[in-house]
Amino acid sequence: MLRGADCAFADDPALTPLLTADAPVMAVDMAAAFAAVLAHPPLDLRQGRFARRRRLAVAPERIQRLGMFAAALAVLSAAVPLAEMVRLNLAAARLEAAAAAKAAPAGGVAALDARLAQRQGGGAGFAATAGTLFAGLAAAPAIELKEMSFSVDGLLRATISAPGAAEVEALAARLRAAGLAVETPPFVTENGRIRGELRIGG
């Protein structure tokens, strides 16, 4: 195989002298030439996407430092919502204390008891008197409660409708047996029933 600057052809004993004339011909060791080309190829195919990947060597100290940074970041991430939760709890506690201070008047429990007694009225109070009346009405289903009012002096007025005077007297007897004072003014007849007002006091 002969190769020149601008030609290449197979070596032929008859043709080669005619083509080369007096040009110098140098014999080349093909095995050595191939080895040299393979050792230093003129075109590097291992480049770009096909380049050999290099392993990045990271010092152990840097890995340890990165781990410390990650741990600190995790602690800070958890501390922020925790601090916000504590702040909200403290604010809620302050609001509850302020609301309790507004709700409780000066004097505390004693003042609240006095206000409650004042609102309940005189005598046994509305709750106790009305509760006793409702219990008596529950035992007398024929009697209907039409109206009811309570005054600050402890007098409860209940307008009722009953089949007759016997039922009214039986209800009044139950209320008196429970410790209440009962007045029964005259009743009027209305649609076959009697209607009137009970005046009940403690």
From TrEMBL:
InterPro entries: Glyas_Bleomycin-R_OHBP_Dase
Top-level taxon of origin: Bacteria
Protein's name according to its UniProt entry: GspL periplasmic domain-containing protein
Protein species of origin: Sphingomonas changnyeongensis
